Amino acid sequence: MDSDNSFLPFHVPDIGDDEIRSVVETLRSGWLTTGAKVKKFEEDFAAYTGTTHAVAVNSGTAALHLALEAIGIKEGDEVIIPTMTFTATAEVVLYFKAKPVLVDCEPDTLNINADEIEEKINAGTKAIIPVHLAGQPCEMQRIMEIAQKYNLKVIEDAAHALPAHYQEKMIGTIGDITCFSFYATKTITTGEGGMATTGNSEWAERMRMMSLHGINHDAWKRYTKEGSWYYEVLCPGFKYNLTDIAAAIGVEQLKKCDRFWEARRRIAAVYDEAFTDLPEIRTPVCRSGRQHAWHLYVIQLNLERLRIDRSGFIEALKEKNIGTSVHFIPLHLHPYYRNTFGYQPEDFPNASAAFERIISLPIYPKMTDADAGCVVDAVRSIVLQYRR
Ligand SMILES: Cc1ncc(COP(=O)(O)O)c(C=O)c1O
User: Fold this and answer.
1) Which of 37, 126, 153, 186 is catalytic?
2) Predicted TM-score (pTM) of this structure
């Protein structure tokens, strides 16, 4: 609950004294931008996810952009992505004047429907970006097999998927490059931030260089004693480096990642249990052999059994002081994607139908059992009031 003890926000980051101390220490250190803290955050993140290389950047979007640049996406290429995602997944493809080719979702998990990927592949297709929606890993075995068959690269959008496993493999170690987000609402945060992980040292080096103006090796060290004033620009790069201030938060948040996950998992279990007897609510489906990160808890309303629509339900929850969100408005329904690519709602029937039904309930470690109880009571009472 917020300070007036009434409204439960959709999300509140869990920032403790450790993060505050670490930021203050960094502010006092005299080194604010990319430096030792970023290096430590990258090392800790690589160790945590079990990957060889982790490149810290200032957003998940930047990580996706650099990943596509590293694998060599060019104008006119096609990249397969789900329609059920945030615009960042698609916009980075458009940065290259390449084409994001949308694929419908599975009706239950809302993840990309792997069965529909192959029919979208043609000679121009270069990559697939699966998005682990809400934190549930996609059908990675199928996706990796398809990628291998057609010689495509796989860039995972893992903005929701820390920590998550697929068949014992940590997300961050499966695709060619995996991109994480540390935006304020994510499972760990640096305010704004992101990380790209890969087992390929050439791509890691390329992303590192392009994240800082395309300047050669260890550009950030040029103001240190061991560094040199001399540098060379090898490519027109970007300004995507993470600050040490942000990394100071990240290092501390990462230490709590497992505890945060346990807390979210508990809340998910409370919701699952509380809604089992309500046929009006479809709770999230979890496929076997995966660890769901529980970044989001997305319910689907069974509208046939209700006299209220999704927007009305959200309003009713707000009146009961519960903040919610919708993940996502599918890309094909947004004016830009609709108008540019001529998409119709019926082109992606599962995502179009799901969009009318989905609500993301609050799920974060700062929630108390009483908070989760308030969400349960509010959902149940609206269902009872509006059931047919
Ligand atoms: C699925 C997905 N991909 C990418 C992003 C982009 O992450 P960021 O906000 O860190 O740029 C987000 C974030 O909000 C997201 O939800």
Assistant:
1) 186
2) 0.97
